Amino acid sequence: MKIVFMGNPQFAVPSLRKLVESDHDILSVVTNPPKPAGRGKQLIKSPVAECAKELNLPIIETDELKSENFLHTLRDLNGDVFAVVAYRILPKKVINIPLKGAINLHGSLLPKYRGAAPIQWALINGESETGLTTFIIQPKVDKGNILLQKTIKIDQDDNYGSLAEKMSHTGAELLVNTVDRFESENVEPYNQLDSNATMAPKITPALTNISWEKSAKEIHNLIRGLAPFPGARTVLDSKTLKIFKTKYIEENSTNNSGEISNIGKDSFNVQTGKGQLIVLEVQVEGKRRMSAGDFLRGVQLDIGKNLN
Questions:
Q1: Within a 10 A sphere around the Cβ of 157, how many other Cβ atoms?
Q2: Helix H or strand E segment including 218
Q3: In the chain, what are the helix, strand and coil shares in percent, each to the nearest 5?
Q4: What are the φ/ψ torsions at residue 222 (nearest 5 degrees)?
């Protein structure tokens, strides 16, 4: 089939590569324009744009999804299917252009975790498994008829980065399988049950703040869901301290919530509302990410010191 691919982040790159390796024809790749980043505000292309360039594919970089020029360009491509992975909410006029429809790859077992951050929220909520879904895009976000699904086990040491990487490759295979079966009409779309739906809203700065009144397990899962980006944060000596890797124990100390309860060679404990969080990897404001051991060798911490 003739496909127009749409995507932005690294999560979408394996899907683009797999489609290029398949028997389908990639007509063009739609992605966001370069954005300024870093201290020098250098324009940085999206990972999908970089991949498309490497593969010598035509690229459309635009923010104007409702512009007549963009819509005209898409119509002229005369694609059978739009394959969409971690892109943006498509206007109805765009959804209606492809001859056979628009297919989305979503990082959850829909209708669970509808929204912008399904992988993060599965980790934050302490799920033991999640999955991937391909579905036919409709104007309502993540509510289209399901095509195929694949369950993914969440390992205890998974964080957002490792789980997203694993899911991106499995998702690429699922997307190609979906397109293959969609072309041969060997897949039967079925409705989502709205009564089973849960939401996975965008990660906000407020969510990244650690509340030490919560249990150690809850905080541990929050840190997993926000690592390596944007990172869960607290405050130590008036400076932001991001925490990227932890373990936890159910045993309480005699300290109050948010107080350092134990200091070892390569880690330190913080008392929470229930149990103690064992901190293994951190980043102090203005410094590089480092092991807790390296951090401890450069600061003076005392039992009872408060994080807030």
A1: 9
A2: helix 216-225
A3: 30, 30, 40
A4: -60, -45
User: Contact at 8 Å (CB) between 180 and 97?
Assistant: no
- Pick from 241, 249, 162, 238: which is nearest to 208 by CA? 241
Q: Which residues contact 203 (CB under 8 A, 6 or more apart)?
A: 116, 117, 120, 226, 230
Q: What are phi and psi of 105, to 5 degrees?
A: -100, 120
Phi, psi of 104 (to 5 degrees): -115, 140
Does residue 141 surpass a pLDDT of 90?
no
Nearest to 131 by CA among 200, 84, 47, 81: 200
The pLDDT confidence band at residue 290, using thresholds 50, 70 and 90, is very high
> What domains lie within the chain, and their CATH numbers?
2-196 (3.40.50.170), 205-296 (3.10.25.10)
Based on its alpha-carbon atoms, the radius of gyration of the chain, rounded to whole angstroms, reads: 22
- Compute the average pLDDT of residues 97-115: 98
Has this prediction a pTM greater than 0.85?
yes
Closest CA to 269 of 212, 209, 211: 212
* Nearest residue to 21 (alpha-carbon basis) of 180, 178, 176: 176
Contact present, 113 and 124 (Cβ < 8 Å): no
